[in-house]
Amino acid sequence: MTELSLTEYIAGRPDDPGLALLAQTSATLRADPDFVALEHDPAAAIFLETETPQPLALDAFDAVLGRIDAAERRERDAASRVRDDPVRQEIARLPSPAREAALTALDHGRWRFAGRGIRRLPLAVAGPGHVELMRIEPGRGVVAHAHGGDELTLVLTGGYDDGFAHYRPGDISLAQGEFTHAPKADPDTVCYVLAVSYGPPRIGGIYGLLERMSR
User: CA 102, CA 119: separation in Å to the nearest integer?
Assistant: First the structure.
């Protein structure tokens, strides 16, 4: 899809909790000083286009300090929940909205098989879409698949190529309808993605059978 249509797709669904988590995670990622903004950034316009200008409140400074304190508390809480699990330690470094959802999911659920070197973690997010965090080992790839509906994917760490384009941290991919792709992680870094899909994946062969058994 074009950049404009991707912006409209997300902004046009303000009541979708899965897309809200994706947008909040994207905003947090882009606020990170270590993040280098891309030249073409279709997600950045989402927030400006949907905001209504407001006068600055008298307590704005105190409110900002309160948000900073809350963010620091979230960081401390995340650090206390990682235990000695190296994968939890990876998750603790993800943008906070996705991180909080993932740590909560691990407290009540488990990673599921999604292919060799690939795991997926369903997130407890209500709404029409299925929301999950995926962890892809360097150089590993998801088998070719389509969906019964649309799928949006936000790259959090690393990167991948799906045979049509290359995606880096902050990029959002939108695969619609019967579009078939086979994402493969870059060879040097673990790739984490936040995915929101509207229909089960359509995978053929033994991988499809194993994926259905893991649900």
Answer: 13
Structure-block tokens of residue 86: 């190296």
**DSSP codes of every residue in 170-195:** T-EEEE-TT--B--EE-SSS-EEEEE
6 residue type, one letter? L
- Tell me how crowded residue 33 is: count the other CB atoms within 10 A of its CB: 5
Q: How many CB atoms lie within 10 A of CB 103?
A: 17
Look at residue 61 and tell me if it is in a domain: no
Nearest alpha carbon to residue 144 among 199, 181, 195, 186: 181
Instruction: Using a cut of 0.70, tell me whether the model's pTM lies above it.
Output: yes
pLDDT tier at 211, thresholds 50, 70, 90: very low
CATH code where residue 170 lies = 2.60.120.10
Residue 56 is assigned to a structural domain of this protein:
no
Give Rg (Cα) of the chain: 18
**Which residues, 6+ apart, have CB-to-CB distance to 30 below 8 Å?**
37, 43, 44, 170
Q: 29 is in which domain, residue-wise?
A: 3-47+95-213
The structure tokens 């649309």 sit at 150
Number of domains in the chain: 1
Question: In 10 A of CB 114, how many CB atoms?
Answer: 23
111 within a domain of the structure (yes/no):
yes
Would you call 200 helix, strand, or coil by DSSP? coil
Residue 55 resides in a domain: no
